[in-house]
Amino acid sequence: MTRTFDLKPFCLAYCGRFHLHKPWRLSDGRIAASNGWALVVVDRNRYDGPCSDGARAPDLAPILADIDRVTHWGPLPEPAICPKCGNTGEIKVDCEYCGGTGECESVCPLCGEEQHDCLQCDGEGGEISKCNCFVCCGSRKISRAIVTQLRLLGPVEFGTVTKKPSDHILVRFDGGVGAVCPIRPE
Q: Is residue 123 a contact partner of residue 139, using CB atoms and an 8 Å limit?
């Protein structure tokens, strides 16, 4: 039996780039999904969920053309668990207005009223911030969260075409290919 993939983790869950909110069908029948940082393209028989027609989808040809130019493929590293984010890529930080309590006990710095849920964090006590944990793939760095997602596809190999640390990293796995944007060098 052919394994199918869940592509939802590779879709963008928020923001105005609505064309990335769900997978889309390419002209050759393959299915693509991207969250803006990672792209995966799977064979048509490897995905059976909903997808769009791809009318507003990005042109993948320039990225995927490099797949055949990779001369060395290596296994995608298994990331250690990040103590800050657990490899989700997001960490909760205390809200600067309520100090993490979720409530304004004295005079609220935002509205001037007393005793209510914090308006900045909606009473949650914190806000989501990006974690900068990464895994090295050759000379490039990839977010641990993205590596963790890619590993859900099974054994994944990575390769590069150029030596520029800012150029994308190509990946391949049984049933598909993809590309990942590295963390930019500082």
A: no
